[in-house]
Amino acid sequence: MKKIGILLLFAAAIGCSNDADPEADKSFFTKFYDDSNFNVAYTPLDAVQTSSGGYLVLGLKRIIDSDGSSIDPGVIYIMRTDEFGAFVSDIELDETFVTPAPAFLDVNGHFYFFAMDSNGLSTQLFEVDENGQVAQQLNVGGSYPLAAGIDGTSLLLLNYDVGNKMTQMSVVSTDGHIQKSKEFTIGAGDGPEEPIMNHILRTGRLLPFQVGKTTGGLYFFNGFYNYTLSIVFTDLSADNPQGVIQGNQEDGGMSQVFPLSGGKFAAARFNYGDNYFLPQAALTQSGVTSCADLGGNPFPELSPNAPVTIITTSVGSTDRIIYGSNTRGKQIALFGYNPADGTFIGSKYIGFSNSFELASLTPTSDKGLLVLGTTYIAGRFPRICLFKLSAESLGDSFQQ
Amino acid sequence: MIRSLLALSFIVIALAASAQNNGKRKAPPSMKSKGTPQEKFLNKQFWLGFKAGVNLTEATPVTRYSVITPTNYDVSKTDKSYKSFNKIGSHATLEVTFYYKGFSISAQPTYRTSKFVYSNEYAWTNTETSTQKLELKFDQEQQLNYADLPLIVKYEFTQNKLRPYVQIGAYYSVLLNATKSVTVSGTDNASGGTNAFKNEATVVGAKDLFTNNWGLIGGVGLNYNLGNVRLVFDASYHKGMSNIANVNNRYSNDRLSGIGDAQDDLKTNNIVFSLGVLFPLRFLSNNYKSLD
After folding, report:
1. B81 touches chain A (CB under 8 A)
2. Which is nearest to B148 in space by CA: B177, B92, B93, B109?
3. Residue B286 pLDDT > 70, yes or no?
């Protein structure tokens, strides 16, 4: 009888080991944020993690016109979740604010994004608090924000100056003041403007506009310069670029570049639909070169002219370059590389059954990764989705 | 219905016990120990045999989880609707029992397949044209294969040919395999007409979503001594005491999370009916039946 008691206690002890685990629930989850309205479409743009462990998602929400007589450009939408990914609240900005640059910028725990006031076509800087509410709105100036980034405690902004048909790059302080700025011609005539406006209005192909700073101190942007989508290196002092890596109008160019140490870049490029990854590219930062000469590993599994997001993050005790993109099979694909030598480490595919498209990758405080994307619930309703990958799951895929 | 069957089983066994006692009363086991050598011999026995039967499962969510997270409707609408005791599973058992003076202790390693089902329903309506509506229903059937390791104590009410008994015990279930079958059906009123559809079921391996668990057993049964063998019928209720879901892998199956499914934390209860035959392992002599 004593032995039976011991066995029962043993069984109970084993059984109790599978109690709910909030840490596991925080570290690994999948969430689709549904709206019961048939004719609403959500477009996620970027996400940040708050100090409480929750997440803020920047996106667009638009109404699909039932009779197809108009196009709703959508309103700016900010959603807040808790650390488990559970929906907490959301807000929609006034419809006068449009075309947000697809970047939610985390500067020392303060969250910013750029959008444009359609009354006057002037770019606005919005600060968002931890509760997902707009804390302040500052007029920056310049029309049509295309891309944004961070340089220390300053913000980087890429605009399209529709009045002068120029690509404009600026360094903006978090109080909305432009510290440096230069404009570069997109080329004469209406031709170069058309793909830019199609991108802005989301009536055509989305182009991989980007802005950043190299480890050597030069600024760069991926935008239209001289009729072609190009990587332009500039010190924002000289009128002319220091270097240009030309694409082929909007049919070829860089999909994304990410500065690494030693002057190298993790890069991706596209060329008439084909996609190539260059995990350790030596990009020429002076003179004029062509990205078609850069070569790279072809990725035929990716969708044509696939959008690519590149980040670096720690996976376990090692640093990794993570590429994220969309496959032809409508999954989100992650590819890991060693930043030291560019060797391929592993891959991970996210999403099945429904279609999925990547919006952004955000490393999290627990050394996991937040994958923000769009899923099409029931195969038809565009909704925001979040995949929180744990440090362990990243290690399984990207740690040798 | 099922609980009624269990109650009925208990009543039948109790009546059988009563009838046995009324017909031919025998001395209680404690008194028999002072009887003849044969009676002393019958106070102790090892039994080995096989049982098989059917089981029904009830899944009780402890904590609910969902991939689908509403932004404009109540989160309770994403709760899974579980159906209790409506799918028949099966099991096969090897029984080893030691009997002593009416009491038995029994190890009954079992291979068990249990099934339970739940469903989710979602609807989307056009705010501008309310006739445009899509309704979807996801029916999910879980099939879980376990190696159960129960340890049971029985007490037999009589020492006759027909011996009703009660039993209590505990079990530990080792997960061997799990699958989920998902069937999507619905009505689409947004494609120019009314289109009711039902897709082919998709079967997905789901072992990672579940884990080992344990529980308690209570039940009743009847032993019927037939010559040198014993026929057994028992009915028991298995009360799950621990979570059967693997808390670390709730969202790990892309095929399931892709359609919005996340495993709830669950406890399962089972109603188990078994029929079997037991063989005595101790014989007094070649001419003597080890039973009555």
Report:
1. no
2. B109
3. no
